[in-house]
Amino acid sequence: MISIIGGGPSGAYLAGLLKDKARIFEEHKEIGKPIQCSGILTGSIKELVPLKKEFVVNKIKRIELISPNNRYEFKLKEEEVIVDRAKFDSFLVERAEDKGVEVLRDHKLKDFRIDNNIDLDFGDKKVQTDVLVGADGVNSLVGRKIGLRNEKFKTGHQYRVKGNYDKEKYQVYFFNKGFGWVVPETETVARVGVVSEGSVKEIFDSFMDKLKISQKDFIESQSGIIPMYDSKRKVSKGNVYLVGDAAGHVKATTHGGIVYGMRGAKVLAKVLNEGGDYNKLLRKEIGRGLRLHKKMENFINKLGEEDLDGFINVLKKVNLGEFNRDKPFSKLNLFLKPSLIGFGLKRILK
Q: Cα–Cα 20 to 30 A to 40, which of 165, 184, 262, 341?
């Protein structure tokens, strides 16, 4: 028996790929809630699951990058989608159920003990399992109990906001050691937020002032903690494994983790079905991309206000519309421009 703690995208996707009997324990009564995500997915999601009208709320054709005193808008070669996370997560859970996976909602793991089997404690229920998978998010109890917890975090603060928006374009605002976003659901509602290492509440309030958004325009809050990827961290111990946010499989540049989390789940499914070294296979399949995103984040975080403006200038010479964030090596040659290389060298040697 394989027991998966958490019914988010990584846990639900994994469950549907397993050959052995599996079950999902989800702590909430409703799948996909509370929402703590901007819900942007690149076209790479179609390599994992089909896109369904039931969970796609909008399609994005253009992106605008904005620094303190500069901006660059480009057209995407492949549309990106904005999903309703509750409906997307439910779709994945239902797919797993259709394949015979038992899903137990309103089951919060309290503790577990490893002996010959793994004994799970849900308070009023005790369960035994052969294999345990922590797909239980950034503050994973499973990860903490086996000494493999997330150590570094950032905080994201987002609201759904009423206003007037270009529904085909989302915007990214760069500032020192963080960024903000405006992700439209419709022409009148957008997901607006920030992520930063600093005081996120102060940064969010300042961002709202910049966009001239008042509290009366707020619909609902969708904030959360985001894990930082650590290439040296192991994410399994014995018959206990971590996936998704619990494993820190999040892009350091955008802090999106759905596609990489599901790819990691696919790797784990192969290990559980056929055998293999989970940590080694992860490094091969998704580690290179995540490490590249971490290096890019480290570079951008060193840029001051004037440097960010200059960075946008050199990016204007790059056809970013062909770049897929979930496949960073496929179009890495786009960035081999003399102006961009020169800009990078000057900042590194500063």
A: 341
Nearest Cα to Cα of residue 298 among 247, 347, 248: 347
Cα–Cα distance measured from residue 271 to residue 253, given in angstroms and rounded to the nearest whole number: 28
- Shared-domain flag, residues 35 and 171: no
- The C-alpha angle with vertex 179 and arms to 177 and 184, in degrees rounded to 5, equals 170
Tell me what percent of the residues of the chain surpass a pLDDT of 70: 95
Domain count of the fold of the chain: 3
88, 52 contact by CB (below 8 A): no
Euclidean distance between CA atoms 53 and 49, whole angstroms: 13
Query: Residue 320's CB: how many other CB atoms inside 10 A?
Result: 18
Question: Token digits for 108?
Answer: 């919060």
Does residue 346 carry a pLDDT above 80? no
pTM: 0.91
CATH number where 197 lies: 3.30.9.10
pLDDT tens digits, residue range 15-30? 999 999 999 999 998 8
